[in-house]
Amino acid sequence: MKFGTFVYEPEKAEGFDFHVLRVKQETGKRISPVSDMASNIAVFADNVAGKNPEWISQSLLGPAKFGNNNYNIYWNVICATQPEHRVEQLNYIQEVDRLSPGIWLNSQYFADHGHCICRRCVKHWKKSGLGWLEWRRKEVTDYIAQIRENTKKELVMCLQPDPITAYERYGVDFDDLAKYADAFNIVMLSKSYATPWYWEMLSRGFKKLLKKPVYISLYVSAYGDKTEDIPSATELLINSVRCARTGIDGILYFAASAKNILDFQKKLINNFDLRKRLKNYGKKPAQEVLDLVSNWEKLFN
Ligand SMILES: [Zn+2]
After folding, report:
1. 47 C-alpha to center of ligand 1: Å?
2. Structural domain spans, the chain
3. What distance in angstroms lies between residue 9's CA and the mean position of ligand 1's atoms?
4. N or C: which terminus of the chain has fewer CB atoms within 10 Å of its end residue's CB?
5. What fold characterizes domain 2-300?
6. How many angstroms separate the CA atoms of 115 and 120, rounded?
7. How far is the CA of 155 from the centre of ligand 1 (A)?
8. 191 closest CA partner among 232, 147, 158
């Protein structure tokens, strides 16, 4: 297994195999890529591009705008066929690929079920002769193929933690994406991991379905979180071990900065009783999580 950080600030916490930097967030904010951290880019979720109201993805349940509670949408999401945005993102991804060791895409698909019914999408769909869902799938897959053609380094597809209806909701076909992706990252961000059974089940499900290595991302903290808002070190360690034993290929820890990651590492190190108890939670993969914590202990003591 490999272990990484998934962060907003361009600093590397010690004790991990790799790092992913959020160079373009869903807010549209961009920061410079760096040469020794992979770059995470939110493609269609983009509040800055969303300032063009006619670019926002449309549905019978309203637009993909923050505040439309028919969907779990926290940003403005651009229509996945918007031609100017597609070209601009493609050029941007190509440039970032040149400057960093890899690209981790998220929001590289339709906003959700029922999207997008803008005039352009309906026109393209009718012209295609395909069924509605098949047309959406083709739009997503063709764009990913174009991105693959224009990038040279590692390309990772981040996915929502929905193994069953990604096709109907986002136009995502896992096998299509596996042709172009070097790996997948299931973004399992949650402020609580109180019931690890569910996360373990999702890890197992994705490992069965996806034809490339599978990473998961777990939430440590983000900007503005209070201590009582974030998952406890106990929950994170139990969840890491239980997801690891499903055979996934790696875990990323999501936080604002390397400093937040360090605080989390120290809390895990000090959880001595739990580390001991988890030793029987599965063989090699679970042991690799515990070895990681032991290595941090050596690093910091
Ligand atoms: Zn559209």
Report:
1. 16
2. 2-300
3. 33
4. C
5. TIM Barrel (3.20.20)
6. 12
7. 25
8. 232
